[in-house]
Amino acid sequence: MAGLFGKAQDAKAQELPVELRALVSQMGQERAAFETLVARGRESAQDINRVAQSTAEVQKTLVELQTRMEALHTRIEAVQRLVPVMATLDEQTQAFTGAQRRIEAQATRTGEDVK
């Protein structure tokens, strides 16, 4: 039956009755349409594979970004815990500086009193 659709068999197809020739012609057209559909199906499968690869790459990138975001979040939490400590240290430094200035002033007055 495949021979009915080939070019070499066109002469034999002409020997067929008119009804069969019309049927063979229609079958040839359907075969061409199916071949086109199969080719499109292959192209679609290739497109799907490319999309799947791209999706896998995007997923990998998203996992990497999520890991980085989690690390950044951990660092931010650590900094947030340090803020009150830094404020306390700043207050203590200011108090120490004030005390040091008072002591220096007293030492200067005491040194002048001793002279």
Write up what this structure looks like.
It contains two helices and no strands. With 115 residues, the protein is an all-alpha fold.
What would the keywords be for this entry?
115 residues, 2 helices
Helix percent reads over 70%
Termini distance?
A: 130 Å
Beta strands, count: 0
Mean pLDDT: 88
Order of helices and strands: HH
Helical segment tally? 2
Sheet with the most strands?
A: none
Shape: rod-shaped
Which runs of at least 5 residues are low in confidence (pLDDT < 50)? none
Task: Tell me the strand percentage band.
Answer: under 5%
The Cα radius of gyration reads: 45 Å
Structural class: mainly alpha
Could you give a quick summary of the protein structure above?
This protein is an all-alpha fold and 115 residues long. The protein contains 2 helices and no strands.
SSE diagram, text form:
Elements (H helix, E strand, L loop, with lengths): L9 H5 L3 H97 L1
